[in-house]
Amino acid sequence: MEKPVTIYPIEEKDKPDHEGLYFYRFIGGNSSETNSLIEQLRDLKEQENILIGLFRFPFRFEGKKRWQTAVQQYFNMKDLCDAVIYFQSDHLMELIDQETTIREAQSTFNEIEEETMVSLKQLVNETGEMNIDYHDLENFIRNYKGPLFSHTVEGESFDTPLKYLISKPYLPEDFTDGEQLLINIGYTRDVNMESFRQINLRLHDLFSKADLFKIGSYFINEPGERFRITLIVNGLNDPISIPDDYKLSKYHEIITKCKRSIEKGKRRLNLIKN
């Protein structure tokens, strides 16, 4: 990707300059990009913002070695970001047919990732009766370090069971089984209180295993009876197990840092002596 980092400034009055959402997008699998991934994430981590990694796993047909590299890179990203949102390329493939061109497929995959980022941006920028702000999102994310996912559904009628309405091939398998849930409900002019009550009951039933962190709501100044619901689930499981050699690589990194510090100390000591 040409621009792996997307920055969304938070549009709030009297907001400290350091508050913002940083998204780092990365497609795993190329071992030559691992060092730059780690270095760039470290640089971003030093700034006082929410740093969310968007990680896309490669296709399985691209080979075992590329997959193993991506797994290492995924855990690198997870360690350095406040949260990580992952996508499985094999699951994204279910959104297209065999006649779809490579260019069209990549555009579709990118749009889905963009929608996820935009939904989080809108979450803190949409004002309403029960508003969710930057600090709510910050606390929500930092309660459970690791995978989360944001998904928005929109419609005039929710007569169909919610589990089918929110179902998408790219959603994590445990999306409805996360540890923590944040809901933001947008509603148009003609939505009545009974519809609002019913949609809340059904959401609580579907996500019964999750602790409800906060519910926000906002008005959509458009005619009709329509909801726009954003669901953010935290405390999800990693899609793969951590490799046995990953901890060894972390220890190697610590040893390397120690050696660099010792070398710097020796050079400073020599300068003082001279």
From TrEMBL:
Protein species of origin: Piscibacillus halophilus
Protein name: Cell division protein FtsZ
Family matches, as Gene3D superfamilies: Tubulin/FtsZ, GTPase domain
GO CC, alphabetical: cell division site; cytoplasm
Residue stretches in coiled coil: none
The keyword Cell inner membrane is annotated on this UniProt entry: no
Molecular functions (GO terms): GTP binding; GTPase activity
A GO biological-process term: cell division
Keywords: Cell cycle, Cell division, GTP-binding, Nucleotide-binding
Superkingdom classification of source: Bacteria
InterPro entries per the UniProt record, alphabetical: FtsZ/CetZ (IPR045061), Tub_FtsZ_C (IPR008280), Tubulin/FtsZ_GTPase_sf (IPR036525), Tubulin_FtsZ_GTPase (IPR003008)
Top-level taxonomy: Bacteria, Bacillati, Bacillota, Bacilli, Bacillales
